[in-house]
Amino acid sequence: YYFSRSPKRNEARKRLVEGWSRIADQVILEHGKKTILFCMEELDEPLARDIRQKMEHKDRCRIISSREFNASQMTSLLGQLDLLVTSRYHAAVLSLRSRVPQIAVGHDPRLDSIYQDLGLYEDYFLSHCTPNLWKDLDEKIHLLLEDPDLQQAHLEQGYEEQLSLSQKNPILLREFLQ
To answer: Which stretch of DSSP H or E encloses residue 127?
Structure first.
C-alpha cells in the first residue's frame, strides 16, 4: 500500500481505512477507551491520518509517531495500553515487556513468527486477508478488553523466552564476525 498506486491498491487502502476507523470508533463507543494510532515508521503516518480523519470520534484518537518519539519513549507509551491491535512486529515486541494484551493483523512473516513463538497465533493472529477480518477482530477486541488476563501466561512466558534469546545475540554476532 505504501509504494505503488493502482486502482486495486487504492480500493484496498480505502477498505483498510474504513475498517480501522470503524474498529477505533467501536472501541471508543462500546468500551469507553481512547485510541492511539502508533506509527512505528514515518511511512505509516499518511494512513494513520486518513484513518483518524474518517473516524466519527477523532477527538478521542491520537496519532503517535516514531518520528517524534525514540524507541525508549515508544516502548513506554506502548506499555501503558490496555490492549494493542497491531500489524507491526516492533509494536508487538516492544509492548511485550509490559505484558500488554494484543491482537495481530498480520501481513509480515516476522509478526506471524513472534505470535507462534508466544503461543498467541491460533487465537489472536488474523491474516490481513481473512474473509471476516473486521468482525473477527471486533470479537477478539471485546474478549480481551473484558478479560485482559486471558493472555498473561503466554505473554509472561513469551517475554522470558524472547529475553533469553536476545541475550545470545552478542555471542552470535561475535561468532559471525569471526
So the answer is: strand 125-127
* N-to-C CA span, the chain: 40
CA distance 167 to 172: 10
Total-model pTM:
0.90
What digits encode the pLDDT tens for the residues 3-47? 567 888 888 889 999 999 999 999 999 999 999 999 999 999 999
The amino acid present at 11, given as its one-letter code, is E
Place of cell 483498510: 16
DSSP string of 74-117?
HHHHHTT-S-EEES-HHHHHHHHTTT--EEEEE-SHHHHHHHHH
d(CA 122, CA 164): 24
Residues in the chain, total: 178
Distances in Å between the Cα of 63 and the Cα atoms of 29, 35, 67, 120, 143 are 18, 9, 11, 26, 25
> pLDDT per residue over 92-128, tens digit each?
999 999 999 999 999 889 999 999 999 999 999 999 9
Query: Does position 1 have pLDDT exceeding 50, yes or no?
Result: no
